Amino acid sequence: MSAIIEIKGLTKRYGALTALNELNLTIEKGDVFGFIGPNGAGKTTTMRILTTLLRPTSGRAQIAGYSVTDQPNEVRRVIGYMPDFFGVYDDMKVWEYLDFFAACYDVPVNQRKGMIGDLLALVDLENKRDAQVESLSRGMKQRLCLARTLAHDPQVLILDEPASGLDPRARIEMRELLRQLQMMGKTIFFSSHILSEVADICTNIGIMEAGQLVAFGDIEDMRRQLQVQRLIQARILGEETAPLKDILFQHPQVGKITDGREVELTPDIVRFDFGGTDEELSQLLRHLIEADIPMISFSEEIGDLEDVFMQATKGVVS
Ligand SMILES: Nc1ncnc2c1ncn2[C@@H]1O[C@H](COP(=O)(O)OP(=O)(O)OP(=O)(O)O)[C@@H](O)[C@H]1O
Ligand SMILES: [Mg+2]
């Protein structure tokens, strides 16, 4: 194993605000690293420092052995960056757009045509080769932007929320694309708010909160942490949740209980943390039904990061 990204004591302050606080992080070659955290956690700040666009206040970071502050040109050669907000040059055809970026990276003219064909095939835009960029859908533009970041065949891809704003189908396509890039041997460092998007393609995950890494590990470590604190949502017929809550309060594995009314859900919903196994959860459900609680649904919530993932890592944060 060899580290391809090494971050040590990285700090960024904006006046009084510490956006990044002594971050340490090591990513191995070939990793797909999911960088997770709520708005303002410091993800973009970290990625902008890695891509040499922003200078840290202190600390250091290296990519493929090059310092992002002292050897920015070398770093730029080995990375491809997809920013969180990207402008595409609308008044161009798709192939011209890629040709332009390839030219920026000094790809020789005689190689460009073949390379553009390969890139368009990779991101599944071959049939849009001669379309105007402005005529593409958002998902297509996002894939084109990803193709652009590959124009100089970088080892490391730094992608800031590559799936944001995409519909579920386009998200799946983006995920497949990342998987393919991983198979091509790229190291991928990408940010996301969405746990489910990250869980099955990442080799490891880091969770940021308020400028600090609060959890880091491979997917199994994270799954184990998730098992510790699961968020269950139960819905009953009618709005009388008191009998349901009475039973839950007595259960040793049930932690915090919230009412649908408190969390802006409908009044027939109760949510609770559950610390037990699948078997224990199944027993609890059986018990509720035997106690004549009129259950409509009983399900585990996985999805919204702020609600679920931060809860799951509570133990790590404190
Ligand atoms: N140029 C700037 N000047 C002042 N403060 C900034 C600047 N850029 C970022 N910040 C602050 O730094 C903190 C971290 O921001 P950052 O954009 O890195 O978060 P993020 O994790 O990418 O969030 P999001 O999920 O919303 O993209 C935030 O509090 C933000 O307001
Ligand atoms: Mg961001």
Can you describe what's shown?
This protein has 318 residues and is α/β, with parallel strands linked by helices. The chain has two domains: 3-218, P-loop containing nucleotide triphosphate hydrolases (Rossmann fold); 229-317, Alpha-Beta Plaits, CATH 3.30.70. 37% of the residues lie in helices and 28% in strands. It is built from twelve helices and 14 strands. It has helices at 43-50, 72-78, 94-104, 109-122, 138-149, 168-183, 195-199, 219-228, 242-250, 278-290, 305-312, 314-317; strands at 3-14, 17-28, 32-36, 58-63, 66-67, 79-82, 156-159, 187-192, 204-209, 212-218, 230-236, 254-259, 269-274, 295-300. A six-stranded mixed beta sheet has the order 6-7-8-3-9-10, sandwiched between helices. Strands 2-1-4-5 form a four-stranded antiparallel beta sheet, covered by helices on one side. The chain has a four-stranded antiparallel beta sheet with strand order 12-13-11-14, sandwiched between helices. Helix 6 links the parallel strand 7 and strand 8. The protein is globular and about 75 Å long. It starts with a strand and ends with a helix. The model is unreliable at 303-308 (pLDDT under 50). Magnesium ion binds at residues 43-44, 84, 160.
DSSP, total strands: 14
Poorly predicted sequence stretches spanning 5 or more consecutive residues: 303-308
Hetero compounds: adenosine-5'-triphosphate, magnesium ion
How far is the first residue's CA from the last residue's CA?
31 Å
